[in-house]
């Protein structure tokens, strides 16, 4: 029963908790059991908070028993990426420099989850300062992929992806500046949603690049992502990038009906130089949507050819501005890969940055035009399968290519434009999951979620689960 409980989604657990068929204490113990069983190998937690989680679970049980059920997140055990602030608790950002930093306020998303009755089990591993996509952390150790412990879980929210995939958290949150929610979601076979920029407040989240940063759900199901989005979305005057758009009941709007919907495909960029195993799985999923009545249409977005340049210039320069003083005074405090990227960002000129912003504006206009032709755009999330821990290259159809160059090739445009984008698993090849990315128009997350929900009903994963769970 322990394994079965921890493997369930929020949507499955919420009615059991509300009717007292399952207690928050029982559920929390099931999750903590899995942490004890698996995390010695996976290393998804930076800090396990077992005792405070048990106390919170007991409090939730008493509230529910007294008839004060708060809603579907009440009593749900979650662990969050250690970049989100909890008042009076250490927030390391996966770094050595901030390893003893203690904020004096809660992040807005943390406050909202607390109000919803979430039970927090701990802080999750991440790439140092969220500036990377492997979660091979020099200060807290490498996080490993539950599907294959020799592979990376993706990053920077790798601990979140691994913990949810291995049922060491029922759900989590990640941050996404170039793909850091969607990359680990694809690598670990879960759902990762980057909402529209400004939809979820970033107040109380240590920044990587202010104009590209997002916070979003990482979950087992599309319905769970919708539940978390409707809980977390909303205007926050404390976040200058927050947009005053009302939240919606995304979870109750999931129909999975794609008949007549137009799926846009951009072959020139999003299907160029893709591992044949990834290409096959994604195209198979598109064909299945077509069988359900969706229409597939080619779309042109010419400025995508400059997207990688614009993303690289923007993220490196903004990140280096944030870390400039520490890089100057404590360069030895950074891991080698993070220090390299920060030093590179110091070389970007004002001309480079302003040209990148002009590309962003053009790109946004072209995506907006594409969405007059299509409801959503579909692509692979990653052009390759997860590489080994420590690898600096990836293999794409026999070519050895730079991991850094390839990893945000398909996810970066979503950050440049701020458009909502979701990664959903669409199959398994050679024992590793493959992610499919769905992008939609600004502030129309419901379109993205509904197409993802339709794909989820097709059960393209065929019940496959991480090797870690299969062998123990």
What does it look like?
This protein has 472 residues and is of the alpha+beta class. The chain has one domain (2-470): Amidase signature (AS) enzymes (Alpha-Beta Complex), CATH 3.90.1300. The chain is 40% helix and 15% strand. The chain has helices at 2-7, 10-18, 24-42, 50-65, 108-116, 158-165, 182-188, 222-232, 267-270, 276-291, 307-329, 336-345, 350-370, 403-407, 412-417, 445-457, 467-470; strands at residues 45-48, 77-81, 119-124, 136-137, 141-142, 172-176, 191-194, 214-219, 262-265, 295-298, 376-380, 393-396, 399-402, 421-429, 432-439. The protein has an 8-stranded mixed sheet. Strands 1-3-2 form a 3-stranded mixed sheet. A two-stranded antiparallel sheet has the order 4-5. The two termini are 15 Å apart. The mean pLDDT is 97. Belongs to the amidase family. It comes from Planococcus chinensis. Residues 26-449 form the Amidase domain.
Structural class: alpha+beta
Task: State the strand order across the main sheet.
Answer: 6-8-7-14-15-11-9-10
Main sheet summary? 8 strands, mixed
Radius of gyration: 21 Å
CATH class: Alpha Beta
Count the DSSP helices: 17
Contiguous runs where pLDDT drops below 50 for at least 5 residues: none
Distance between the termini: 15 Å
CATH architecture: Alpha-Beta Complex
Count of spatially separate domains: 1
Helicity, as a percent range: 25-40%
DSSP strand count: 15
Within CATH, the superfamily carries the name: Amidase signature (AS) domain
